[in-house]
């Protein structure tokens, strides 16, 4: 019967942290191939009921969250704004 290589289950971040606390070498868990994400800051924004309905309708149509719709539309608007300023 041929030998099969078993895929290792990924180790959790908590398990890696426990190894580090015990002074174990954890460098093998890091490949330096990822990218650092900037910290996220929460903000509160007030919307009218009509605007929320539009956002919810769009989210439902795209099958994504309301937050994802807001982020996407805001990103598009900021990109357009930046391009318009460069064109001046």
What does this structure look like?
The protein has three helices and no strands. The longest helix is centred in the last third of the chain and has 22 residues, at 66-87. The model has no long low-confidence stretch (mean pLDDT 90). 51% of the residues lie in helices and 0% in strands. The chain is elongated. It has a domain at 46-88. It has 88 residues and is mostly helical.
Write the SSE topology.
Blueprint (H helix, E strand, L loop, with lengths): L12 H9 L27 H14 L3 H22 L1
List its traits.
about 90 residues, mainly alpha, about 0% strand, elongated
SS class = mainly alpha
- SSE pattern, N- to C-terminal: HHH
Largest sheet: none
How large, in whole angstroms, is the Cα Rg? 23 Å
Query: What is the tally of beta strands?
Result: 0
